[in-house]
Amino acid sequence: MRLASLMLAMGLGLAACAPTTPTGTTSSVGSGVYGARTDSGPGGEPIEIHAVRNAYLTERNTRQRVAYNGPEAPGTIVVDPYARFLYHVIAPGEAMRYGVAVGQAGKNFAGNATINRKQAWPSWTPTSNMVRTMPDLYGPLRNGLPGGIDNPLGSRAFYLYKGGRDTLYRIHGTMDPSSIGKATSAGCIRMFNQDVMDLFGEIPTGTHVKVRSRGESEQLEGPLVQMPNGYLEPATPTVTTASATADTAKP
């Protein structure tokens, strides 16, 4: 089971945007935003979350307070799967920006949604289609993978609904911090565990979410190019309308 879950977390990068079952938890934050933490797992057991390596803490990946000129109201979560950013609008003209990894499913939805459920150490179950098309990989997990250190959803998850229906679009943690800032083969929107844990404590269920289309992303973030290391960089040196500095959010 551990091998299968590691394959999901590291290789597939979370091919699972599917409903999970509830768990409860509390957290204890270590020194530094991206330092090691000890969290309480699904059964109350301590779970050690490793510090994020400095190599992964690029300027576009690390959380930072930025100027925000988008139209969304304070309290809104804005997901930009094309610029690989998530914004939490915290005041008029200001947002906290986070780097994210984006799977193919992260580009399958655009528009407005609501976080109707959020979960600590969520479990995960592959869809019947995933089991049918890749039985060797997903067959052993057909009954679900419990929440915990081996689960590719990581430490926290947010579930987006539209019109009362589950969109199957997820914002969640990851057990593969090296993927943040990059495109992945599958999955939705993932964050460093430390980031998603802190955001989890800040936003309630009922929070409005805006997922940008490609056109909206290009208008607000400008053209971007993918570098050989998998990270995005601005194609021009112009400051974007959604960021505070030319270094952190150029188009």
UniProtKB/TrEMBL annotation:
Biased composition (Low complexity): 21-31, 235-251
This protein's pathway: Cell wall biogenesis; peptidoglycan biosynthesis
Pfam families: YkuD (PF03734)
Xref: InterPro entries: LD-transpeptidase (IPR050979), LD_TPept_cat_dom (IPR005490), Transpep_catalytic_dom (IPR038063)
Positions annotated as active site in the UniProt record: 172 (proton donor/acceptor), 188 (nucleophile)
Key word Acyltransferase present: yes
Span list, region Disordered: 21-45, 227-251
Keyword annotations: Acyltransferase, Cell shape, Cell wall biogenesis/degradation, Glycosyltransferase, Hydrolase, Peptidoglycan synthesis, Signal, Transferase
Source species, domain of life: Bacteria
Signal peptide (residue range): 1-18
Start and end residues of each L,D-TPase catalytic domain: 75-212
PROSITE patterns (alphabetical): LD_TPASE, PROKAR_LIPOPROTEIN
One Gene Ontology molecular-function label: acyltransferase activity
The protein's Enzyme Commission number: 2.3.2.-
Entry's family note: Belongs to the YkuD family.
Protein name: L,D-transpeptidase
Organism annotation: Paracoccus broussonetiae subsp. drimophilus
